[in-house]
Amino acid sequence: MLRYTWVFLFGIIGQAWSQLPNRIAFGSCGHQDKTLEIFNTISDINPDLFIFLGDNIYGDTENMRVLRKKYRKLGRNAHFSRLKSHTKILATWDDHDYGANDAGKYYPKKNRSKKEFLKFFREPILSERRNHEGIYTSYFFKDTTGILQIILLDCRTFRNNLLPYDGSLKKDTTYTYPLDYSPHLENSDSTLLGEEQWRWLEEELKKPATVRMICSSTQFATQYNGYEAWANFPGEQRRMAELIKKTRADGVVFISGDVHYAELSVRQFPDMYPIHDLTSSGLTEEWKFATPNAYRIGNPVMENHFGLIELNWAEKKINLEIKDFQNTTKLSHEIEFTELKF
C-alpha cells in the first residue's frame, strides 16, 4: 500500500506518496443495489490505486437523505469494503452520483450533493476541493524515477445544457439508433469545464510530470455519437488539445467512463502526439451495443469489466488494459513514454 502524508508540493497543498504507483485500476457505472463482486477481482490483483470515474452510485435524486442512503449501501458492501481496506481510492463523479441523468450546471442540489460526495470519500479537511466550486483536483506521486500526475476533472458542475437532437442526420446510415443530442457549434461559448476549471487546469499542466492521467467522467477522444461526450462540445474538445500543446504537457493519457462498455480511442490532433482515451464503464452495468467511433482501436468490450494501467517506470512503458470479471485481459495496448512527448 502506498504511504502518504500532507505536504506542500509545487506550491499547493496536496498529497505526496513515498513511491510511484505501478498498477492503477479504475472503473465507473457500479450500481449500489447489485452485488459488486467485481471489486473482489480488483482486490485480488492488488492495485496501488483505484479511481472511480463517476456513476459510483446511482443516486438520481434531489433528496439528500436518499442520496446518503445509497452511499451508505455502497459503503456497507463487503466487496467494496475489502477493496477500500487495502487500496487507496480516488474519485470524481458523473451524472447519476451528481444527482440527475445527463445533468449539468443547472442541477439545483449540486452544492449539497458535493458535500455528500466529499463526506463519503473522506476528503481531507484541508483539501482545496472544499474551498472551490466543483470537485476537480489533482494528485502527484514522485520519486527518483519519475513523476505521475493524476488530474480528476469535474464534467458536471459547470457544464452548459446539452442541445436536443435536431434531426439533421436522419439520412445518415452511420447512426441507425435514436440520437439524444446534437453538438454545439464549434465557435459556441457553451462550456463543459467552465472558466474557473480551465484556468486551474492550465496551471496544472504547466507543472512537471512524466506521465499525466486526465480522468474525465465522459469520453474525450471519441467521435460524435448522439449521446453524452466531449464531442457535444467540439470547441471544448479543441480547447483541451490546444491547451496541452500550449503548455507543452508531455505524457497525457485520458481515462473515461459513462457509456456502459469499454473501448480504446486514439485521436491525432494537429501538431501533437496522439491522445489515448481508455474508457472503462461497466462495473455492474452493460449496454446492448457500442456506438460508431472512427478513433476506436480494436474491439469494444461489452461485458462487465474494469480498467487497468500498468506503469513500468524502469522501461518507460505504459500498458492500457481492460479486464473482465474473471481477470481475463480483453483489451491491451502498450505505449512508450517517448510516444507521448512534444
Topology diagram in text:
Layout: E1 4-9, E2 12-17, E3 23-27, H1 38-44, E4 49-52, H2 64-76, H3 78-86, E5 88-91, H4 95-98, H5 110-120, E6 137-143, E7 146-152, E8 163-164, E9 181-182, H6 195-206, E10 211-216, H7 234-247, E11 252-256, E12 262-267, E13 275-279, E14 296-301, E15 305-312, E16 317-324, E17 329-336
Parallel strand pairs: 2-6, 3-4, 4-5, 7-10, 10-11, 11-13
Antiparallel strand pairs: 1-2, 3-15, 6-7, 8-9, 12-13, 12-14, 15-16, 16-17
Helix pairs in contact: 1-3, 2-5
SS summary, helix count:
7
In helices, the fraction of residues equals: 10-25%
Q: What distance lies between the first and last C-alpha atoms, to the nearest angstrom?
A: 33 Å
- How would a textbook summarize the main sheet? 9 strands, mixed
Give the C-alpha Rg.
Answer: 19 Å
Q: Looking at the structure, what is the overall shape? A: globular
Assembly type: single chain
Low-confidence residue ranges: 1-14
- The fraction of residues assigned to DSSP E strands is 25-35%
Strand order of the largest sheet: 1-2-6-7-10-11-13-12-14
Mean pLDDT: 94
Structural class: alpha/beta
Task: Give me the count of strands.
Answer: 17
Q: What is the ordering of alpha helices and beta strands? A: EEEHEHHEHHEEEEHEHEEEEEEE
